[in-house]
Amino acid sequence: MTPVNLAEKLSRITTHWDPHVVADYNDNDVMVVRFQGAFPFHLHEDTDDFFLVLEGEMTMDLDGSSHPVKAGEIFVVPKGVTHRPRAEAECQVLLIEPKGVPNTGDPATAAAKPRI
Amino acid sequence: MTPVNLAEKLSRITTHWDPHVVADYNDNDVMVVRFQGAFPFHLHEDTDDFFLVLEGEMTMDLDGSSHPVKAGEIFVVPKGVTHRPRAEAECQVLLIEPKGVPNTGDPATAAAKPRI
Lengths: 116, 116
Known about the structure:
The structure is a homodimer. In chain A, 5% of the residues lie in helices and 50% in strands. Chain A is built from 1 helix and 8 strands. In chain A, strand 5 and strand 6 (66-70) form a beta hairpin. The A-B interface holds A 1-7, 22-26, 30, 47-48, 50, 52, 54, 60, 62, 65, 67-70, 72-79, 81, 94, 96, 98 and B 1-7, 22-26, 30, 47-48, 50, 52, 54, 60, 62, 65, 67-70, 72-79, 81, 94, 96, 98.
């Protein structure tokens, strides 16, 4: 039980689309990640997807609409909704997902989510 | 499905220890709150308690230890652990708790958690 400094954790990550677990909240992974470029469109049938932009700006593309999300803003994608995060310049994000959820929606292509 | 700007939401809250719901994540309330002074010691038998300091600094008092938590830092209190947040100067916090959880650990004294 110690505080987790998000900037310190992010300073140890250089890769993009590579979420690292920094804390546990009930049965969820709390993660930090760097976004740059466009992630594949996907959906999660059984869970919402929580994004909080810490630094920079991303765009959340949905089916038919695009939403800029800036530092200090949250975007929750409801379960079953097709989406892709996208960032022109590098963006730092706090992610929360239930443990075991593949970040791409597909275990075959999902990131490993190591603990940092 | 729109971004939620946390500073804008907080600008509409003037009271302390008065969490307001700004988003839903699965069956959890995502809330913003202003802390100042000391909250009562309490525990949640059935859930972890998620705190992210957005502005300022708080202290998380546990049974026998105290942990400063600064802006950009997370502190998760595991279920069953007695704790109280405390802030000498006003502090702005993002809270996540399952819906229906009393913030004091006791429905009789819990805050209402209105949506903002």
